[in-house]
Amino acid sequence: MGRLVTKVTLMLGAAFLAGCSYSVSTGGSDTIDPAKVEGEISTQMTKQYPDIPVNSVTCPDGIKPAQGVTFECSVQLEGVQLPVKVTITQMDLGKETFSYDMKPTKTVLILEGIVESIKTALRDQKVPNATVDCGTGRYRVVEVGGAIECTVSAGGERRVVRVVDDVDGGVRFEDG
User: What does the domain layout of the chain look like in residue ranges?
Assistant: First the structure.
């Protein structure tokens, strides 16, 4: 096996909701209704990534809306949890509404896409029958800029490949 160093762009959760702003009514309450924020996160995630099923979204109760307040919600995907940071960006007390931005604090790696990308890179290097094992499950949540390890086997040789989130909506593969 030759060196496997390449960069590919895969559908990753890091870009999900980045820079998106939403507005919600407080309905006269002095706290945020978590169900409204949960519903918006679920809707936006489903729109942007229809192939990633959102099992549930949970946001904390008792958050008082004020500009600059941040809190964390949790998106439950198939077997993993993705933390999403919510920041209140604007308040309109007269209309009883607030605006907020949502951004994941971690990245979702889609293992099937990673395995296929590694296999394609190896075929391009004339290693057509390699097997790739990146672990169980469909998704893996990592820190932004984080990495996972996959094991590549071909022709009796085994090698570890690090899959690194490159923070720009892609991943790169490095020899482990």
Answer: 6-12+108-175, 15-105
